[in-house]
Amino acid sequence: MPETIKLDATQTTDIEKAASLLLAGHLVAMPTETVYGLAADASNEQAVRKVFEAKQRPVGHPLIVHVASPERIRYWVDRVPEAAEKLINTFWPGPLTLLLPKKSDVSDFITGGNPGVAVRMPAHPATVATMEKLGRDLVAPSANPYGRISPTTAEHVLGGLSGKIAAVLDGGDCSVGIESTIVDLTGETPVIARPGQISQSDIEACLGITLAPGKGASQVVPGSVKRHYQPVTPTVGVATDQFARLLPEITPSGERIGVIWWQSAPGELASESIMLSADPNEYSRMLYTAMHSMDQANVDRIVIELPPRESRWLAVHDRLGRACTEQFG
Ligand code: TXA
Ligand code: MG
Hints:
ATP binds at residues 57, 150, 194, 229. L-threonine binds at residues 34, 66, 120, 140, 142, 180. It is an enzyme of class 2 (transferase). It is found in: Cytoplasm. Its EC number is 2.7.7.87. The protein is α/β, with parallel strands linked by helices. It folds into two domains: 5-207, Alpha-Beta Complex (DHBP synthase); 235-328, Threonylcarbamoyl-AMP synthase, C-terminal domain (Rossmann fold, 3-Layer(aba) Sandwich). It is built from ten helices and 15 strands. It has helices at residues 12-23, 45-55, 82-91, 108-111, 125-134, 154-161, 200-207, 243-250, 280-295, 314-323; strands at residues 5-8, 28-30, 37-41, 65-66, 96-101, 116-120, 138-139, 167-170, 181-184, 191-194, 235-238, 257-261, 272-275, 301-305, 326-328. It has a ten-stranded mixed β-sheet, with helices on both faces. α1 (12-23) packs across α5 (125-134). The protein is globular and about 60 Å long. The chain binds threonylcarbamoyladenylate and magnesium ion (MG). Threonylcarbamoyladenylate (TXA) binds at residues 32, 34-35, 37, 61-64, 97, 99, 111, 114, 116-118, 120, 122, 140-142, 179-180, 182, 219, 221-224.
């Protein structure tokens, strides 16, 4: 494949170029408010196949269909429950994916053979404009090689997929920084299948109900494997309340340690360090960027100071639980 080209999301001609590449069945990485997505024309099975090849993602892992307007979900979804309407009116465009009963003709390639199809309207204007120009919907998993950290900049995308995709549309840094919340609406009661910035309490407030966390999941989200979102460098997490005590204990002398912290400055034990915010949204926005840069920093081990075990940190803990091979404290 020829070299991956970088397109500029602020240029109308580049948005048109992205749309024409997609129409021709090529892969284009697109900015969203959560993470960059690896987009293909959802109506072109050959193009959808290329997504699995480029990411080296096992076939059978289903893909989210991205739409430019709520009306377009009727091409994918068999029936729109009232809860879905409420959530769409409140949160779209935005970092919320809905799992809904699929229309019978939706390809198993997209749903992994599941009875539900995942749909979302992203908030990045350039991606919405590209889909409008294309007049079709896009499948878009995160634009990282399978198992690796999701990209939050165009440079991250190129670092993982350069030469394997036709283009990346550079729309700047992602504002949310972690993947969308997934709400499964195919069962009797709504279930959060993947936590994200839109929290359980946001969803409960919108629907006027209380959700039973983790109970009654009508489907397992297949991409939610334990090891996921991992840096290449071995990565461990350490509880914040024991960080100062445990950091020297778990640091073999002579090892170069890269520390990602938010409260407990690591001092001289760290060869490299990156400080993140004490605010969960701000922390999420920078988390993958920090992991990507630590992965490039030539350290032997990455140590992450874990945030408190509080519900507002749930999505962050979900991602850190997958990124870290081990947690201490
Ligand atoms: O924020 C996001 O959701 C990003 C951006 C690019 O939109 N996309 C993303 O896609 O995170 P991906 O493929 O990396 O993760 C999607 C998750 C996977 O765990 C997948 O198994 C699940 O959604 N999923 C998608 N379609 C599904 C379906 N029909 N049934 C069950 N799970 C599904
Ligand atoms: Mg992903």
